[in-house]
Amino acid sequence: MRYRRARIAGATYFFTVNLADRQSSLLVEYIDALRETLRHVRREHPFGIDAMVILPEHLHAIWMLPTNDADFATRWMLIKAGFSRQMPPVERRSLSRTTKGERGIWQRRYWEHLIRDEQDFACHVAYIHFNPVKHGLVIRAVDWPYSSIHRYIRQGLVASDWASEATEETGFGE
Fold first, then answer.
1. Of 91, 126, 162, 170, which sees the most CB atoms within 10 A?
2. Is 82 exposed, middle or buried (0-12, 13-18, 19+ CB in 10 A)?
3. Residue 32 and residue 28: Cα distance in Å, rounded?
4. Pick from 30, 112, 100, 129: nearest CA to 76
C-alpha cells in the first residue's frame, strides 16, 4: 500500500516524528548527534526550519521546502538513517526490520500536515513551543532547552514568559 501525502513544492509542513520505543529518551540523550545529522542533511538537501522542538522520544518541526522541491520524505529518511547510524545497537528489532536492514529506532511513519495559512502556521508554532509543558517536562515553555522558542524570544516574536500560565485547554495546534 502506498501512503498518500500532500506534496507541494515550496510548501510549509508540520511534522511529528516518533521513536519506536516511546519510553526512550534517545533524542535528548544524543541531541548533538541529532543536531549534526540535521545540519548535514540541510547542507545536502536545503530546507528551512521555522520551528522545532525535540522531546525525549519524539519531535515536532515546521519546515519550509525550496520553491522547486516537495521531497520531505527523502530528508526524513536521511535524518532517521543518519541519526540511527550514530546510536549503539541495543534496540530490539523485529524480523521484518532485520530483513529490511532497519535499526528499529524510529517509527516507520511520521505525521505531516500541509500548513494552509498564517493562522494555521501560528497555531502549529504555538503547539510546538507548548509541547514540553503539555508533556510535563517543564512548567514554562522557555525552560525546555531543545526548542526554537529561544530563537523566537531572541527575535522578539514571543515574550520569555509566553504560555507560563497556559493549560492544555488553550487549544494550541492539533
1. 126
2. middle
3. 8
4. 112
pLDDT digits over 39-94, tens only?
A: 999 999 999 999 999 999 999 999 999 999 999 999 999 999 999 999 887 667 66
Q: CB neighbours of 108 closer than 8 A, spacing ≥ 6? A: 102
Please compute Rg for the chain using Cα positions: 16
How far apart (Å, rounded) are the C-alpha atoms in residues 21 and 108? Answer: 12
What is the pTM assigned to this prediction? 0.89
Q: Where are the beta strands (DSSP E) in 19-82?
A: 48-54, 58-64
What angle do helix axes 72-85 and 31-44 make, rounded to 10 degrees? Answer: 140
Burial 21-58 (b: 16+ CB within 10 A, else e): eeebebbbebeebbeebbeebeeebebeebbbbbbbbb
DSSP assignment string, 43-54: HHS--EEEEEEE
CA distance 6 to 70: 9
Q: Which of 110, 127, 146, 152 is catalytic?
A: 146
> Is the distance from CB of 19 to CB of 26 less than 8 angstroms?
yes
